[in-house]
Design brief:
Helices cover about 80% and strands about 0% of the residues. The chain has about 260 residues and is mainly α. It starts with a helix and ends with a helix.
């Protein structure tokens, strides 16, 4: 038993090192080549998008072909359209409550805001953030990391919590970490209930798509809710309550519908 636990934890470390290593090596390599060709050291949106997309694609290939995350179509064959629908509703309903909760916490440095804004405001940024990131991050952090942690830990919530902490840390931006941790808990729970990354990919896709849209329609992507609602605390609270009226029933429905195939 101990040998299995040690092997599972060793696998987690390997997955994380490979994931982080690919991100660092590929992004830094492409950025250096890009700057060398361009003849200047300026960071551009296209440079960031190409490097992020390349790193995501390589990660996808490595984790699938190494067998670290099994791609099984059985869950989609079960036609889980109700689950996917409520994943969409839950993701939409969580946006404002998550933003409100984060504003109640001590302000954390948003060290990646300039780069993040450049990527999100480019039409091609959606490829990296809205399409590739949800699939790759679910494959790595639920399909590989959490799968091994669930074998190593007796309690599933302990495994989910650890995977959520790792998911938050790997984002590398303190301002994103609270939201990433909370979302990681929900995504981990959905994976534990189904054994599939499909619900997590659906939720993750909606979450990132909403973030992309909001970043492009708002003048300041880091705008506080109180400013967004014209300085009215009442409107902020009503927005939170309305969002919870979407989120809580969606979680209730998911709790009834999520099951292993």
């Amino acid at each position: 038993m101990k040998t299995n636990i040690y092997q599972d934890m060793k696998n987690v470390i390997v997955y994380l090192l490979v994931f982080v290593g690919i991100q660092l090596c590929v992004t830094s390599g492409i950025q250096k080549i890009w700057q060398l060709i361009a003849g200047n050291g300026d960071i551009t949106a296209n440079m960031l998008i190409v490097s992020m997309s390349a790193a995501a694609a390589i990660t996808l290939v490595v984790f699938i072909f190494a067998g670290w995350c099994k791609i099984d179509r059985s869950y989609m064959r079960s036609s889980p359209w109700g689950v996917l629908f409520w994943c969409f509703i839950a993701a939409a309903g969580a946006v404002i409550p998550s933003a409100w909760l984060q504003e109640q916490l001590p302000e954390l440095p948003n060290v990646m805001l300039p780069e993040f804004t450049m990527i999100m405001r480019s039409p091609w940024g959606y490829l990296a953030v809205g399409l590739l990131a949800p699939v790759v991050e679910e494959i790595v952090f639920r399909g590989a990391v959490l799968k091994s942690l669930l074998k190593a830990f007796r309690g599933h919530w302990a495994a989910i919590a650890v995977s959520s902490v790792l998911f938050a840390i790997v984002h590398g931006n303190p301002a994103q970490m609270p939201h990433a941790f909370i979302v990681g808990l929900l995504l981990g729970w959905m994976y534990w209930r189904t054994g599939s990354i499909v619900p997590g990919v659906a939720y993750h896709w909606v979450n990132n798509t909403i973030a992309y849209i909001l970043c492009n329609i708002m003048p300041d992507p880091d705008i506080p809710l109180i400013v967004l609602f014209n300085g009215s605390n009442t409107r902020v609270i009503l927005a939170v309550v309305f969002s919870l009226c979407l989120l809580l029933p969606a979680l209730f429905q998911l709790n009834m519908r999520l099951k292993r195939i």
